[in-house]
Amino acid sequence: MSERRAAGDHPAAGAGPPGLARTRALLAHHGLAPRRRDGQNFVVDPNTVRKIVRDAGVAPDDLVLEVGPGLGALTVALREVGARVVAVELDGGLVRALHEVLGDDPGVTVIHADALRTDLAAALAAVAPDVPEPAATLVANLPYDAATPILLRCLREGLVRRAHVMVQREVGERWTADVGHPRYGAVSVKVAALGQARIAGRVGRQVFWPVPSVDSVTVDLRAQPWPHAIDREAVLALVDEGFAARRKRLANALVAAGAARERVDAALAACGLDPDVRAERLALPEWVRLAEALGPGLGRGSQAE
């Protein structure tokens, strides 16, 4: 369900992002409480959300996709700089509270939906039909349990040109890890195939309420075109198969995925890779070369993590 706010004054920007007292009052007024199982920790420090907006480089009239706006602290900070915001929120109770925070702000479109299932491209196009794709920037405090699939969907479908998001620290480390890092894995390769990502900063636990038991970081990512002749999804499918049994040798994992042993051995040799190599030792360029050497037909299809 989508609702474009009617034209008029927008008291949200004037009131500023909700702090701790207003966050508690809003939740109480709407009969809500933070759900820890869903990772509901609200940012209650206005300086933090304003810094995220500054670091994201958002300018007046920029089109921003925000997933998981919660009570609108970041949404308000985005509107303070004049961005047009499409805010997608799954929790119906929070949607009601969000409308109270935003008032009748015409620069925000609130969508009550699952960001992994709704038509985000259509929502963005409806707000900015005159802007070529991809033109949106993803700026969000992403839900911890869905951060990776949300990011990968936005990048794979070409919905955004840039992302500047807050996530759990270990998630950000997985996204940006290089070979040799303990958190390097399939998602590290996928993110590298879709854009250039870096951890932009750390976020203290005290800016959230309730205070979480995990640390957070902001991650900045610039989408980039795929420069290789081989289809990107074919490479990502191979990455999924290679990491499906992380403790196995890569050759054994690919054979388990249905490839002939001779074919795998020949491809590894052609790429100059050790026959005992494991998936975690290959960087993106090596995955590309291996996919080219193996040729078509391997893999059951790449899956978002």
How would you sum up this structure, described in words?
This protein is of the alpha/beta class. Helices cover 39% and strands 18% of the residues. Helix 7 (147-156) runs parallel beside helix 9 (186-194), helix 9 (186-194) packs antiparallel against helix 10 and helix 12 (261-270) crosses helix 13. It is elongated and about 65 Å long. The two termini are 26 Å apart. Residues 4-13 and 299-305 have low confidence and may be disordered.
- Determine the mean pLDDT: 91
Instruction: Work out the number of β strands.
Output: 10
Q: Helicity range of the residues? A: 25-40%
Quaternary organisation:
single chain
Q: Would you tell me the structural class of the helices and strands?
A: alpha/beta
Number of helices: 13
CATH T-level topology of the largest domain: Rossmann fold
Structural domain tally: 2
Distance between the termini: 26 Å
The CATH H-level homologous superfamily of the largest domain: Vaccinia Virus protein VP39
The gross shape turns out to be elongated
What strand order characterises the main sheet?
Answer: 1-5-4-3-6-7-10-8
Percent strand equals 15-25%
Q: In sequence order, what are the helices and strands, one letter per element?
A: EHHEHEHEHEHEHEHHEEEHHHH
Radius of gyration: 21 Å
